[in-house]
Amino acid sequence: MENESQRRGYLFRALGTNTPVQYRLAFNTPTDDFIPNLVNELVVYGKTSSGKPALYALLKVIREDVGIDVQATIDALIVEFLPSAATQTISTPPHLVFDLLLQVDFKQQTNIVREVMRSYFTAGFLVHNEPECGLEFLLAKLFRMKPSLKNNQPIVFDVGYRKIDRLWMQLGRYFRVDPISTSEILEKICERWQTQDVVFIFNKVDCLQPEIFSAWLEEFWEPLVNIGKENPPQKSTHLFMFLVDHGGKVHQSNINVSTTTSPPLDPRIPLYLPTVDSFTLEIIEEWITEVVMQRSDIEIEFDQFTSEILFQKSCQGIPQFVFEEICSFFSIDCEKVFTQCIKI
């Protein structure tokens, strides 16, 4: 709606030619004047030949030319001004479904990380869930507790069955240190940490032999923590390490991890986050009533979208299946939603 051409074009697409609205509007007025006048004229005009309100028709046309964030705003407007009987099923954008999924529980884990984040600028976490229990969504939720983390790309490495020299080689290639120098790599990390959050995700740490894992923490993580104590960042930036254990072997081994957040916390020792086996029926019910039903920008048949149905279809609350069933209720391709997670 910035210029006369755009204004006439959108009205033509929404209402067709030769409508009273086009003759009653002054198309060359400032935008702040034109928009209110346009809305008033559309309300006076009433409904189009298809029986839909004229304002609805215009918003639907504009929706085709904007990004998904603005689409969500337009969807909320459509739901607000249409009477309930005339409300149409609106295609819920994948990003909105993703935001809804991130609000399903994981409260125990997020509360621990939030508590640590408030008190420490350096911390390591051992993350482990049972199979199909949403590790990717848990990490995505943890990354959104601090705005700068949400917009900061984590450094993700699949450690697999590698030896320590191969792990250093991975880091050296990432930070463009050649020949590989462990001290220079650590310096590069700390240099970045001075101005921005630095987050490492080491995936499949359960594949490492316990002695290799312990030696890796001694060579890599402990020196980083010590350097941070001696030369802390000038800004309130964090240095985090997430160790992703898919098999539960790390916690069962003799590797030194902490299970308590009671101060003082030693940042050199990874903190073991509680596991999530399944979502209870109560957790799903709370999410539906306190999150989904409070939104005006989504449209769903709540008589079919109940906690009992969702719990049953997800094999009694297995998180991955809960997420898949939610996507199915919204007629959204799961892959489009899951791609917004951190790949591990």
Automatic annotation (TrEMBL):
Pfam families according to UniProt: EAD8 (PF19961), iSTAND (PF19995)
Domain Effector-associated: from-to ranges: 2-80
InterPro entries assigned: EAD8, iSTAND
Highest taxon, organism lineage: Bacteria
Inactive STAND domain boundaries: 101-244
Name of the featured protein: XRE family transcriptional regulator
